[in-house]
Amino acid sequence: QNIVLVGAPLDCGKARKGCLMGPDAYRTAGIARALTALGHSVSDLGNVAPDANDIPERDGLVNLSETIGWTTALMRTAQEAIQQGLPIFMGGDHALSLGTVPGVAAHAAEQNRPQFVLWLDAHSDFNTLETTASGNLHGTPLAYATGQSGFDGFPALPAIVPPSQTCIIGLRSVDLPERELMAGTGVRGYDMRAIDESGVAALLKPFLADVAKVGGALHVSLDVDFIDPAYAPAVGTTVPGGATVREAHLVMEMLCDSGLMTSLDLVELNPMLDERGRTAQLMVDLAASALGRRIFDRPTPRMI
Ligand code: DIR
Ligand code: MN
Ligand code: MN
Ligand code: MN
After folding, report:
1. Alpha helices in the chain (DSSP H)
2. ipTM at complex level
């Protein structure tokens, strides 16, 4: 498979800086090498830069103009990159998905393929410019991509992902307005308790079956804070009680087996907060699992 690496060093979606180093941390952790070793051909398009615009800042919103600049640039880049293969958008904070999700969805729409989104995150990122209490726009991309109103100044969406074609797994921090906005939209949201009670595989399987049934495209957005901070400390918005390393790998391995994933975001890595690069390495290892790395071939595991 052709894998297209795209660096998106945007750091404007919240106050704490450091995510701009994410793309180079993934490169340093050997993302290209890991995927090449799996038999893929890997190209690196380098880093994207934000478009200029003259959108005025708004009180209560953090870096609105720059975020919109990244959104327009990444929408365009995503549409180009996905023509060449499976893009991996190396963030950068989660505001990058304001551009990548509508971009890949536009490509799917051209092909008359329904676009699905799997959101692996402690947060639902379902605030709008009107509901956000923090003003941090990394908390808004899923609301935007699913066509919620309240995004004045943002570009018109080239394609909307219907909320019923999205699935969030890993939730443990959802604001009240997000919960109210999501209710009744058909977004599938699974919190950590759901993982505890039924196991992550049982949550993911029916969603993947829905994607497969209609020949959908599947964008996966992996926020570092999906994983428990004990294993993935390099993120500014840690929430205790997250997915284990194995739960995260199982999701990736199931995605690989399904053959459904068409694009991937790796977001919110802040290398300044890392312990000797372990979080960057874990994210690279998860991407490798999603793209074919395995210990034994399945379904017949053998003993050594
Ligand atoms: C909170 C935190 N819901 C907000 N969000 C995120 O600021 O909107 N933290 N995404 O990572
Ligand atoms: Mn997020
Ligand atoms: Mn096309
Ligand atoms: Mn998050």
Report:
1. 22-28, 31-36, 64-84, 97-110, 141-145, 176-182, 192-198, 200-213, 245-258, 278-290
2. 0.94
